[in-house]
Every structure is written in structure tokens, then in C-alpha cells.
Amino acid sequence: PIALNLMLNSELCAELNATGGWNLNDHLSTGVMLQYRNESMEHDQNNDGFMDMPKGNRINLLNRWYYTDHDYTMQLLVRGLYDDRQGGQTKTWRANNADKTPYDIDIATVRIDGFLKNGYVFDHDRGTSIGIIASGAYHRQNSLYGSTHYDATQGNAYLNALFQTYFDDENRHKLTTGLSFNYDFYDERLATNRLTNGLFDNIRNEFTPGLSAEYDFKYDEKLSLLVGVRADWSNYYGLFCTPR
């Protein structure tokens, strides 16, 4: 149910990995994954005053659930990431050049995302079923390159519903229909100082609903013919169709 792995190398990089899985009952199970990594030692093998690799801390955490009961199946996954990295000029360079401004690199990232999948079978003989998938993500990055700041946030939400069925006794003719919606949010800012107005500011909301239909014909497991069409509407690009 639980596995642990610890690592420490010659560069004083420490890492912990842990995984666990449990069957809570006949229908429900869950799993957990954890990773922590720490790199706090500066490396400058060529003595140019810049770190050869960034220092930093990283944490990854994931939790997944699985549920099944006769004709219904569900999966849920949530994961999070925190990653902070520092690079640029070393402490030795700073001590020897106290009158100069050092060049720093600092990138901090926070991300949370996950998905929910649901499926239900109405008729096993005809393969009549419905599936609904929903997912979302939040990503934030604050970064510094010398005196330049770049901060960005992105959010995403996605929903997809599919219905499929065979409409003959030999399961030769299958119809699949779908409905989807995608939303993206972007907020970017580039500046020489976080207290001043940005050199570049961009906020954008983009959403795209869509419909699809697909027909599949099979003959004696040797021939398969498929035809489909998809229509999407974007608030940036308008309406467009994709035949298949």
C-alpha cells in the first residue's frame, strides 16, 4: 500500500518519492503520489560567476480516485505543483563585486489541475452509453530575469459529453454525437519593475463551444467507413466546420 524512496547525491540534491494505493471497498479505490526535491547548493565549475544549474524546491502531489458500480464508472484526479528555482550569479561573485548589481533569475510556479470522468452504459448489447469529461487547470508563474519581471496566469476549463450507440442488431452501424466547451483565460505582464506600469500587459478570455457527429460502418471486421463533421464557434475566430 505504501512505497518510499529517498535519495541524496554528491551535489547535495535530496529527493523524496512516496506512493500509496488503497481499495476502500468493492467499488472505490484511491491512490496518492508525492514528490519533494531540494537543491540548495550552488555549483560553478567553470568559475564564471554564474550558477551552472538552478537551486530550488519542488513539490508534486497527486490524488486519484476510481469508482465502479455495475454500469457506472467514475475517475477523479487532482494534482498540485509548487516549483521555485533561483539562478544567476553566485554568492562568491557577489562577495567579490559588492559595488555591482548581480544578475538574478527567479522563477516561481504554482499549478493545480484535475479531471473528472463519468461513464454510464444503458444497453450493453447495443453499446449505448454516455460519457462526460470535465477538466480544469490553474497555472501561475512569477519570474525575474535580471531587472525584468514577467508574471503570467492561465486558467482553463473544459467539458466534453459523448453519446454513442449501435442502431442495428449486427453492430455494424454506430453513431457518436458530442458536445464540448473550452474556456481559456490569460493574464500576462512584462515590466522592468513590479511597481511600475508594464511594458506589456495582456488579458484575454477565449471560449469555444462545439458540436460533433460521427457515423461508423463496419463490415465483417475487414472494412470500416467513417464520416463525421464538427462545428465550433470561437469568440476570436468565429464559426468554423471540420469534416472528417
Distance between the amino and carboxyl termini: 46 Å
Structural class label:
mainly beta
Q: Kindly report the average pLDDT value.
A: 92
Question: For the CA atoms, what is the radius of gyration?
Answer: 26 Å
Commentary on this structure:
This protein has 244 residues and is mainly β. 2% of the residues lie in helices and 72% in strands. It is built from 1 helix and 12 strands; from the N terminus they run E-E-E-E-E-H-E-E-E-E-E-E-E. The protein has a 12-stranded antiparallel beta sheet, with no helix packed on it. The two termini are 46 Å apart. The mean pLDDT is 92.
Topology:
Blueprint (H helix, E strand, L loop, with lengths): L1 E7 L4 E11 L4 E12 L15 E15 L2 E17 L2 H6 L7 E20 L4 E18 L2 E19 L6 E19 L8 E20 L3 E12 L3 E6 L1
Antiparallel strand pairs: 1-2, 2-3, 3-4, 4-5, 5-6, 6-7, 7-8, 8-9, 9-10, 10-11, 11-12
Characterize this entry briefly.
The protein is mostly beta strands. It contains one helix and twelve strands.
Keywords:
244 residues; twelve-stranded antiparallel beta sheet; 12 strands; extended; mainly beta; 1 helix
